[in-house]
Amino acid sequence: MDDFDAHDIRERRLIMAPSTSSVITLTINGEKYTLPVDHRTTLLDALREHLDLTGTKKGCDQGQCGACTVLLDGRRAVSCLQLAVAAEGRDVTTIEGVADGDRLHPVQQAFLDLDGYQCGYCTPGQICSALAVIEEHAAGWPSAVTADVRPEAGPPPLTADEIRERMSGNLCRCGAYVSIVQAVAQAAEVQATGTEEAVA
């Protein structure tokens, strides 16, 4: 093969190579953001590095600690394993979108009331996960510790064991688990009853 043919083949490969970046529009906390991203950019890095939404934390960056948990269409997702391009067209909720203005969400209030945090690094992910846990439980979704998984049985009691199992994807290096379980239970009770009273 002469030099001309080799050069021609290289040029054709460059022309035929697919693009490695896109301009995407993400809906985050009810607002639309349009940004260019490399296709390999995770949702976590798009949030933190491109949009300055730094409430979502980078922990292990391997989907094991839960610090980067956000909600995608109301379901929990570890944003370090979710590509930003795959989140286009979905509703993303981060910790910045949980409160209603200056009014804290019942889950946030319960974490404050019951010291469900220490250093606070894992707290945004814990709160986002707790939001989904409460919704999943209310919808009757069983967990690995649910005794009766028949649909007609309805939601099981939201016991400490149920909460621990459902929150098990979120690690707390400080060990605030007892308070986290209490906070989730209190928030679930507040949401179920519509009261603002703390549960003993």
UniProtKB/TrEMBL annotation:
PANTHER family: OXIDOREDUCTASE WITH IRON-SULFUR SUBUNIT, OXIDOREDUCTASE, IRON-SULPHUR BINDING SUBUNIT-RELATED-RELATED. GO terms for molecular function: 2 iron, 2 sulfur cluster binding; metal ion binding; oxidoreductase activity, acting on the aldehyde or oxo group of donors. It comes from the Bacteria. Keywords: 2Fe-2S, Iron, Iron-sulfur, Metal-binding, Oxidoreductase. Residues 22-98 form the 2Fe-2S ferredoxin-type domain. The lineage of its organism: Bacteria, Bacillati, Actinomycetota, Actinomycetes, Kitasatosporales. This is Oxidoreductase. Pathway: Alkaloid degradation; nicotine degradation.
